[in-house]
Design brief:
Blueprint (H helix, E strand, L loop, with lengths): L6 H10 L1 E4 L5 H13 L2 E8 L2 E7 L8 H9 L2 H11 L6 E9 L21 E6 L10 E3 L8 H13 L6 H4 L19 E3 L5 E6 L4 E3 L6 E10 L16 H4 L2 H14 L7 E6 L11
Helix pairs in contact: 2-3
Bound molecules: 2-oxoglutaric acid and fe (ii) ion.
Length: 290
């Protein structure tokens, strides 16, 4: 994949584990997308994690003439897809949706994504195209530059954690998304955590095997992005060739998953994402328990 990546972005990724691309969308598309998000209600699913409400707004399955459909096409363009594939170490289906993250510090416990962590034990990529400015108070993404690189200390740590994670009392750690106190970064050969406040229209692509977190917000705030995840089975011995990326399937994976959640909810089974109806993406969430 390397020859297909812009050389400056490739060098930045190889060194840091992330790439930041400013002014990612053409200005007309950015304006149209912002305008549509502010005025056109869409089907929304959401999950509360403590003080944070995470919303998923699926992209339209076909070109319905909307600005969001044009945004979905942009996300499939080679300059985005190749970079995300390179960051994940392999190409394949990028599960993409609109995401809003609403934080109200008064509304609950700490957000588990605000603990420093690696998503899993192998390279895997996420991207955020932040549509509006994300200031230091707005819960920006934070990353430890270079922590996508497997140092001998990191390898030993992964091995040790893998042996005892299940008994450490943290659900996310036990599930394989290992948590790390910031004070232990230097023992693994890494430098300090860095926070990335961004201007609107900034694309951030990161290998989330590197240590990262959402910066906790001290104020009530909402962050909207186009969000994508490329996480493949690391034991599949080929690159590309992902059945979920076939045109008939790729628009449906998210919707099928959410429709299943709805069916589970109807029968009283536990769910992760609840159906929030057809609303504006940035509607302030109801306080917990209402
Ligand atoms: O939303 C963020 O800034 C980071 C959240 C996170 O850890 C993730 O999506 O893996
Ligand atoms: Fe994460």
């Amino acid at each position: 994949m390397a020859p297909r990546i812009d050389p400056a972005e490739r060098a930045a990724f190889d060194r840091d584990g992330y790439v930041i691309r400013r002014n990612a969308l053409p200005p007309e598309l950015l304006d149209a997308v912002r305008n549509e998000i502010a005025t056109v209600p869409r089907p929304v699913w959401q999950m509360r994690q403590g003080q944070t409400v995470n919303r998923v707004i699926p992209l339209p399955p076909r070109n319905d003439g909307s600005a969001i459909a044009a945004l979905a096409r942009w996300a499939r363009s080679p300059s985005v897809r190749d970079l995300v594939g390179y960051a994940a170490g392999r190409s394949g289906h990028i599960v993409t949706s609109l995401q809003t993250v609403a934080v109200d510090p008064a509304a609950g416990d700490a957000d588990p994504q605000a603990d420093l962590h690696a998503d899993t034990f192998h390279p895997t990529a996420k991207f955020w195209l932040f549509l509006n400015k994300v200031g230091p108070e707005d819960g920006p993404f934070s990353y430890v530059p270079g922590s996508h690189i497997l140092t001998p200390e990191r390898l030993a740590w992964e091995h040790e954690e893998a042996r005892n994670a299940a008994t450490k009392g943290n659900r996310h750690h036990a599930a394989g998304s290992f948590r790390l106190p910031e004070s232990e970064l230097s023992a693994l050969g890494y430098g300090p955590l860095q926070m990335f406040p961004v201007e609107g229209n900034t694309l951030v692509v990161a290998d989330t095997y590197g240590f990262h977190k959402r910066t906790p917000s001290q104020v009530s705030t909402i962050r909207t992005s186009l969000y994508g995840v490329l996480r493949r089975n690391p034991f599949v011995p080929w690159n590309g060739l992902d059945a979920l990326d076939l045109p008939v399937l790729r628009h449906r994976t998210m919707r099928t998953h959410l429709a299943m959640e709805d069916r589970r909810a109807k029968t009283g089974k536990p769910i992760v994402y609840e159906n929030a109806g057809v609303i504006l993406a940035e509607t302030p969430p109801k306080p917990p328990g209402i």
